[in-house]
Design brief:
The chain is mostly beta strands. Helices cover 6% and strands 49% of the residues.
């Protein structure tokens, strides 16, 4: 949600905004609780995850302070020989500028409250290659699943401060609360699930 720096420009802009956001992330560090297992990287036994997502968003300005938005991600993840691809968890949110944008063009804070929907497949399966001749179909690791299977509540804060017409800083904070602790999907990674899964 990009801020509008004056009332005249705000009125001239369309009430609708379409956005596309690409994100890539690589993870390879291992932890047991809060302790990082540095020896995994040193020994070359770490497992590397690659995450890539393209998020499509559409938002509508209801007035100069209120707006609403819908975000839908397409995700492609990889971990060792397994992959996941498809629709991720979508979310809807409502946003409100704490200060009147017509009177506060230099700095402002926007709060957002939304809902995260379980639209991503949280039971995505791929083949685990055990050896040259054996492969087993099972749920991929939870770290590369397309969703978590639960409905969540999102809280956001967006702010900006303009030092001059050419220099500004922006801040975004995002928190997701998901009441569902477990979704019942096996974490055996192609092995035989335990009786508890």
């Amino acid at each position: 949600m990009m801020p509008q720096h004056d009332a005249a420009n705000h009125k001239a802009l369309s009430n609708w905004t379409v956005s596309v956001n690409n994100r890539y992330f690589k993870s390879y560090k291992h932890f047991v609780g809060k302790e990082e297992q540095h020896e995994r990287v040193e020994a070359g036994t770490e497992v590397i995850n690659h995450f890539a997502s393209t998020e499509f968003g559409i938002s509508r300005n209801l007035n100069n302070r209120w707006s609403s938005a819908l975000f839908v991600p397409i995700i492609s993840n990889a971990r060792r020989s397994t992959h996941s691809f498809g629709l991720g968890d979508a979310r809807m949110a409502a946003y409100y500028w704490l200060l009147n944008p017509a009177k506060s063009s230099r700095a402002n804070v926007q709060m957002g409250l939304g809902i995260k929907l379980p639209t991503g497949d949280y039971r995505y399966q791929d083949y685990f290659h055990k050896n040259d001749s054996l492969k087993i179909l099972g749920p991929v690791d939870q770290s590369i699943q397309l969703g978590d299977g639960g409905t969540g509540i999102t809280l956001e804060a967006n702010s900006f401060y303009a030092f001059s017409k050419r220099t500004s800083v922006y801040m975004n904070a995002y928190y997701l609360s998901n009441p569902r602790e477990q979704n019942g999907v096996s974490t055996a990674r192609g092995a035989t699930p335990s009786l508890l899964q």
